[in-house]
Specification:
This protein is of the alpha/beta class. The protein has 12 helices and 8 strands. It has helices spanning about 5-10, 30-35, 60-70, 85-95, 125-140, 170-180, 195-205, 225-230, 240-250, 255-270, 290-295, 305-315; strands spanning about 15-20, 45, 70-80, 100-105, 155-160, 185-190, 215-220, 275-280. The protein is globular.
Length: about 325
């Protein structure tokens, strides 16, 4: 079975998605949702207390998904909740369990979550954490200088928002993460193809596209309530252009989900043809059942791959 790293290196159009761990001491429900994505996506992000809401830890979810053999996990790690001691310790724990795909971000402030009075840590920023993981992998050392034996084998990811002002600095910001060691980048929601294209072009002009794989973030706005929430300005890092808002408000409330799916499929089809883009990252947690149809609408049909994956599972069971 090819890994996420292998698929990207081979130039295959790659699809990742998000999987939110449950709010409970069992991974069973999450594994059921992961099964719906088997064969349709190449790897899933196991989110790290997404939105500053307490859930099953990302590393535990990643281990559960890996052990199930359902799909390849990507362990997310934020800088919000742990200092550099705990961050490095968790990275070693992930490596010991064979978790190689890791993705780093600063994380939403606790004030947005279910413990608004919690003390934020932010001992490191995401770029420093990327550099830390690369140091652990390539130099077999902690950032204290103490040696590791053995070193972990990480495939390092980062996140970026091409749409946050000032736009002219966004490519430079991503380039710093690539210089620190990021090997793949997943972006925030892509709604404006022109701005996204200019950002990718900027990375090319900085000479870093051949060092990092770009996965465009794509999500489905499924309801008027979701549209109101995402366009309110209260969600860190999310900007929805006015033409998109008008398009979704221009249909009946019951049709917003279908129009949102059509819009997402159009974005997938558009970025698929952009030079320098290696795939898409589906920001569709909770949308697992509809993911196959979304991909078909975008011109991507993996039915044969899904069939082989299910056949392999049946064979393993016997």
């Amino acid at each position: 079975m090819s890994t996420l790293r292998d698929r990207l290196a081979a130039g295959e159009f790659t699809i990742t998605a998000e999987l939110s761990p449950p709010r409970g001491a069992s991974a069973a429900a999450m594994l059921t949702r992961a099964e719906l994505l088997r064969g349709w996506v190449d790897a899933v992000n196991i989110t790290d207390n997404q939105g500053s809401h307490v859930r099953l830890s990302s590393w535990a979810g990643a281990v559960a998904v890996k052990q199930s053999g359902t799909i390849e996990p990507i362990m997310q790690m934020t800088c919000r909740d742990r200092n550099r001691i705990a961050l490095q310790s968790d990275l070693l724990g992930a490596g010991a369990h064979g978790i190689e795909n890791v993705l780093f971000m600063s994380g939403d402030h606790p004030k947005f979550g279910d413990h608004p009075g919690a003390k934020p840590v932010f001992d490191m920023d995401s770029t420093q954490l990327i550099w830390t993981a690369r140091t652990m992998r390539d130099e077999a050392k902690l950032i204290s200088g103490k040696e590791l034996n053995p070193a972990p084998r990480f495939f390092i990811g980062a996140v970026e928002n091409p749409f946050a002002p000032p736009l002219e600095y966004r490519a430079q910001r991503a380039a710093k993460k690539i210089a620190a060691g990021a090997q793949f980048i997943q972006t925030q929601y892509v709604f404006d193809i022109d701005v996204f294209r200019r950002w990718v072009t900027g990375l090319g002009e900085l000479g870093v596209l051949d060092r990092c794989f770009i996965l465009a973030g794509v999500g489905v706005i499924r309801s008027v309530r979701m549209l109101d929430f995402l366009s309110s300005g209260k969600v860190p890092g999310v900007q929805i252009p006015e033409p998109v808002v008008r398009r979704l408000r221009g249909v009946a409330p019951d049709d917003v989900g279908a129009e949102g799916a059509l819009l997402a499929a159009e974005v997938i089809a558009a970025v698929r043809d952009l030079p320098g883009v290696s795939g898409v990252h589906l920001l569709t947690a909770g949308y697992e059942k509809q993911t196959p149809e979304l991909l078909r609408m975008a011109g991507i049909d993996r039915s044969a791959l899904v069939g082989r994956a299910l056949a392999g599972k049946s064979s393993d069971a016997h």
